[in-house]
Specification:
The structure is a homodimer.
Chain A: E1 3-7, E2 11-17, E3 20-21, E4 25-27, H1 29-37, E5 43-51, H2 56-64, E6 67-68, E7 72-75, E8 82-87, E9 94-100, E10 120-123, H3 128-136, E11 144-148, H4 151-156, H5 158-165, E12 170-174, H6 175-182, H7 187-197, E13 201-205, E14 211-215, E15 218-222, H8 236-251, H9 256-273, H10 287-301
Parallel strand pairs in A: 1-5, 1-10, 2-8, 5-6, 5-7, 10-11, 11-12, 12-13
Antiparallel strand pairs in A: 2-3, 2-4, 8-9, 13-14, 14-15
Helix pairs in contact in A: 1-8, 3-5, 6-7, 8-9, 9-10
Chain lengths: 308, 308
């Protein structure tokens, strides 16, 4: 069975959208990635840190999905990372209202012994040195290392980011961040420059416009499913990454052709994520639901043109 | 042979981009649509108006591509419509520097006798009453009427636009305009509302993010080809519409399945258009070039996932 180790935040989110608002609910990149990846029949572990205020129920929710949470350190006298944000009417931009790092401030990830030989490592958005320390704990070189990052680290830890990127096979990054990292407007040129920094595969996430996968001179485009209503975009990018990583860990095929499918799985899972607040929609997806939506992706994109 | 009548501006453009600038060159929606549609083996006519200052060479350019220009009225003592614009660094937004309507101000389109029974009518972006007058000249009800429009007419001729839209089978409109026309942010909901206004098919153009085709509960997504460099976006939307209309006029199959292919042809031709200033790149496309790019569209979008 494929083995996937995930590092990322496990946190509280409080979200406001034009459709409503939540109290503190379950959030964090590690959580969304873990839940998305749990839809594939794999062994996965989330490495993270929470405070004594973090409900056991949330950890149980993950364990019950067969996610190993022994690498989620609990600091009893600490408080869990908390983020709060408000989405604008277009749901494409948001203001951060609160960021309390709390226990995340001194987070030192510890990969469980039995996951130090995992074939696939998914480095969720964190300080690039924290991401690197996970790679350093691996006893065998992983078959595939995937890194997600954001503009914040480009602003305040660019050298460390460049260093970590060198050790990565796939990077997932949004369009604006790809432009910031490279100083190039064209995503084709930006992807090539990022490729030169290390990653053989570059996934550029474009939110409601889908995602682009670049490899050498090849490109693949997965649209986002056009939805009636985007209820809450929080975690969509992480859910995408979790679906992508989970599918690859399951199939153990790291070719460009199989990565295309991984991108489609990622987009499919992300399309569920935005339909309800937080992790609500992706906590209990049935195979039938997922297959139905994969079928929608097929209709959305597949065509027949005979060239003669 | 399929018969296509096109109404739209034939004009002078002067364009500034970060890559350079032009003097007055050949432009206009009718020109781009006509040139794009000329890649299909059909009978097509452009209905428009120009001034005495319009070079015969430009008309010859179109005639040589088998485009009937007998419906391009020449007002000897008038001046040709002139537009000038400057693109910003991101190439996605632009400022209009000059708009001189000139002979366009009193434009009364006259569809040539032998085109009044055309199966397909492409109404390029013009005052909705001007578009309607073309439909009124048709002696037989066209099999397919396609309308392109823009926010300007929503601001200053909304009632007329609503009236013309009623008589249309396909509308092509950009995402912001679809939102303005319906007051809906979700493109799925916006497309449904536009559908209720008349058109059975709604094509939403998203520039560098591609185009969406909606029909009943079905959606189809054609990405834009990711390009190294977008040199000049002028006319890309019209080129898309011309490829779309030309393919349908050629194949005479107005089903959703065939419209998907038409959208891909439209995107393919638009991807050439942006590579050089104005009409330069689409004046002489070879079948080989087009097929090669269609093949790139296939690689970009096609995948195999077995659901079991």
């Amino acid at each position: 069975m494929g083995k996937l180790v995930i590092v990322g935040t496990v946190a509280f989110d409080a979200i406001e959208t034009p459709f409503g608002k939540t109290d503190k609910i379950l959030g964090g990149a590690g959580t969304f990635i873990g839940l998305a990846a749990s839809n594939f029949n794999i062994d996965s572990a989330v490495v993270s840190v929470v405070g004594g205020d973090f409900p056991q129920d949330y950890l149980n929710l993950m364990s019950n999905k067969n996610i190993d949470v022994s690498g989620v350190e609990i600091i009893e006298d600490g408080k869990t990372f908390f983020w709060s944000g408000r989405y604008h009417n277009d749901m494409n931009s948001r203001d951060t209202l609160v960021t309390e790092l709390n226990v995340l401030e001194n987070f030192e990830p510890k990969v469980p012994e039995n996951y130090r030989d995992a074939e696939v490592v998914m480095l969720g958005n964190l300080h690039p040195s924290t991401q690197m320390s996970v790679l350093n704990q691996m006893t065998e070189k992983p078959k595939l290392v995937i890194l997600d990052t954001m503009n914040f680290w480009m602003d305040c830890a660019l050298d460390e980011l460049h260093n970590t990127i060198k050790h990565v096979d796939v990077i997932t990054i949004n369009d604006e961040e790809a432009r910031q990292l490279t100083g190039e407007y064209s995503l084709v040129v930006a992807a090539r420059k990022i490729h030169d920094m290390g990653p053989e595969y570059v996934v550029i996430k474009k939110g409601e416009h889908g995602a682009l996968l670049f490899h050498d001179d090849n490109a693949f485009y997965a649209p986002a499913l056009p939805l009636e209503e985007v209820f809450d975009p929080t975690g969509a990018g992480d859910t995408f990454a979790g679906g992508f990583a989970g599918y690859l860990a399951k199939t153990k095929d790291y070719s460009f052709d199989n990565m295309k499918k991984a991108v489609i799985y990622g987009s499919t899972l992300a399309s569920f994520c935005v339909e309800k607040f937080g992790t609500q929609r992706i906590e209990n997806l049935s195979t039938t639901e997922i297959y139905k939506r994969l079928d929608q992706f097929k209709s959305l994109t597949q065509f027949e043109i005979e060239l003669n």
